[in-house]
Amino acid sequence: MPSAEEIQSYLVGAWRLMNGKPEAIRMFDLSADGFWNSFYAILIAVPALTVGWATVASEVGDGTGGRVATVALLGVIDIATWVLPLVAFAFLSRPLGVGDRFVAYVVAGNWGSALLVWIMLPPALIRLVFPGWQDAATLLSIAVFVVSLALTWRLTNAVIDRGAALATGVFALMLAMSIAVLVTLQGLFGIEVPAAG
């Protein structure tokens, strides 16, 4: 596992990429070890993700086998939604002409995703701790989601470094694959996530 100093450097690097600084890619370890170590970003994200899972589990009740089981299923779904599109992109990156950027995209994207999960924590906390504040939580969720999409696009553009059109294509493809995995697995496991409002 990367050291605390390395993790901090990677998160700062991701933030700089999200702010349109492509040179920040030098802050990442793009070796084979760095590639596999970037998946430790999932562990960094789990505490914040768990709040969202607990919130959804409390809202869907015990119909899916109990709250603990629901939290576990949501965890499996979220991790699959994180990883499976990257597996697909491993096969698609070369035909798309960005095979040489695959490792950098995965490494920076993993650390960037961990950072975004923490940025998206406040709405989940509001829903969990103040269930009567659903309208505020919904508005904040929408705002944070839009910001996270913009930051993800900027990270993608900085890492791909082949122009906005290609970056937009990669971004749209990865977003579509993530949504497809999420919806498919939620349906497969019989989890109906209630609307935030």
Which features characterize this protein?
197 residues, mainly alpha, 8 helices, transmembrane helix, membrane
Explain this structure to me?
The protein has 197 residues and is mostly helical. The chain has one domain (4-189). Helices cover 75% and strands 0% of the residues. The protein contains eight helices and no strands. The protein has helices at 4-18, 32-37, 41-60, 67-92, 102-119, 121-129, 134-160, 164-189.
What secondary-structure arrangement, pairings included, does this model have?
Blueprint: H1 4-18, H2 32-37, H3 41-60, H4 67-92, H5 102-119, H6 121-129, H7 134-160, H8 164-189
Helix pairs in contact: 1-5, 1-7, 3-4, 3-5, 3-6, 4-8, 5-7, 6-7, 7-8
Give a brief rundown of this model.
With 197 residues, the chain is an all-alpha fold. It has one domain (4-189). 75% of the residues lie in helices and 0% in strands.
Order of helices and strands: HHHHHHHH
N/C terminus separation: 39 Å
Whole-number total of structural domains:
1
Query: Can you tell me the overall shape?
Result: globular
Number of helices: 8
Tell me the fraction of residues in β-strands, as a range. under 5%
Q: Summarize the biggest pleated sheet.
A: none
Please tell me how large the radius of gyration is: 17 Å
**Structural class, please?**
mainly alpha
* Strand count: 0
Mean pLDDT: 91
Helix content: over 70%
Low-confidence stretches: none
